[in-house]
Structure formats: structure tokens, C-alpha cells
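name: query_chain
kind: protein
chains: 1
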Amino acid sequence: MMNLETQIYLILYSYIYGFLFSYILSYTYQYIYKQTVIPKIILSFLFVLNAVFIYFICLRKINYGILHVYSFLLILLGFISEHFIINYLDKRKRK
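structure:
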């Protein structure tokens, strides 16, 4: 069982990681989709594989690599909130 401090670190890390992953993914895919089919598949696979490795390396430092369901949910929440924030800022910028 994890203590409360470790759970809070895991929650914050998962949310921020989802937010940053979405932000980096949107800019990286601008360059990936200019390629042909085979390099596009390989580069996408390598990007996601690196992102997962980085997540698990940091997760090992926080709670010895133990995954919980809420960590996936918070990554998804960070991913979705980044899209809403970027869309909101783009709308304000256009006005």
C-alpha cells in the first residue's frame, strides 16, 4: 500500500505527463506526417515507445514502477485538457 504523499506525486506526475505528451505529440506529428508510409509508421512507433519508456523510468523513481488505474486516467485527463486549453487559447488569439 502506498502512502498519501506517493499517491499525490503519482497523480501530479501522470497528469503533467499526459499534458506534455499531448503537446509534444501535436508538434511532432506535423513533421512525421510529411514522410511516406513506412517512415511514418516507424517514427510513430519509436516516438510512442520512447514516451512509454520515459514514463516508466520516472514512475520507478516515484513508486517503484507500480501502475494503478488512476494513473492511466490522469494521463488521459492531461491529454484531453491540453487539447481544450490549446483550442481555447487559439480562439482567444483569433479575436
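note: Helices lie at 4-32, 37-63, 69-94.
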